[in-house]
Write a structure and sequence with these properties.
- It is a single chain.
- The chain contains 3 helices and 3 strands; from the N terminus they run βααββα.
- With 62 residues, it is of the alpha+beta class.
- The protein has a 3-stranded antiparallel β-sheet.
- The chain is globular.
């Protein structure tokens, strides 16, 4: 039987900058400071869960 678990949408840092209206360097800084959870790909690029962006938009810092 195949598991049909729902996967969260992962955003590129460029998408996050557009949504939040901040510079890419700010997003990377937040990731390095632990303010945003992200996955670092082997290429060195980041993918940010959509839920992390929603937290920022809602003013939460869980």
């Amino acid at each position: 039987m195949v598991s049909m678990e729902r996967r969260e949408r992962m955003l590129r840092s460029g998408e996050v900058t557009e949504i939040l209206g901040v510079d890419r360097h700010t997003v990377v800084k937040w990731i390095k400071e632990g303010k945003i959870k992200a996955i670092k790909l082997p290429s060195g690029r980041y993918r940010i869960p959509e839920s992390e962006v929603k937290k920022i938009l809602e003013g939460r810092s869980d």
